[in-house]
Specification:
mainly alpha, 218 residues, 3 helical TM bundles of succinate and fumarate reductases
Amino acid sequence: MKRLHRLTAYILIVFVVIHLGNHLFLIAGRDTYNSVQKILNTVYRNPLLEPILIIAMIVQVIGGLKMAITSLRRLPKRAFWQRRFWEKAQIISGFVFAYFIIEHLIALAGVRWFNPGLETDFYWPASVMNGAPFTYYFVPYYFLGILAVMTHAGIGLRFVVQRKGKRRLGNILGIGSIILGGIFGVVIVLSLAGTFYDINLPPEWIDYLKMFYPDYAG
């Protein structure tokens, strides 16, 4: 399980770097973001590659949860707060990462299967970031999700590098990933919330949100 978890982690690290890179283009506006995403979708939605990505995510979640639970049950048992910082950060970020991925895949499937007329472009994440009550959930969801993904990946890379005797470099990678995760999370959340430019949702996306909250005014 550990080897499979590590293999899927390498696949997802490449995906995360590219995917977060795409989201950083949110600063430049909707059209720029959509243009970059359209190019990347030729890879993401490739009939051969997309199933591999989805399977890698599922395997990563299942394997990660299994290892985290095993670690928490391992003897001699230690209180969670007595564990080292890196161990606690890896476990916490792993659980948040798992929740983030599961929620993301369910939402993606919901849009594709039940709302085939909607594109998962800029307006998909922006729609839930531009009005209550959705922002109460999705602001922390996106920020903590991005932070958890970067933290989990960074600590994993730290472990790999330190096993090769490069302790200082490993710590730099771990700490740097946490800091970058926080920065990326703030920038992406602010962009989707319309901090840098006005966001006017199309009628079809307002109708989509009203499926979950009929009183949503847009």
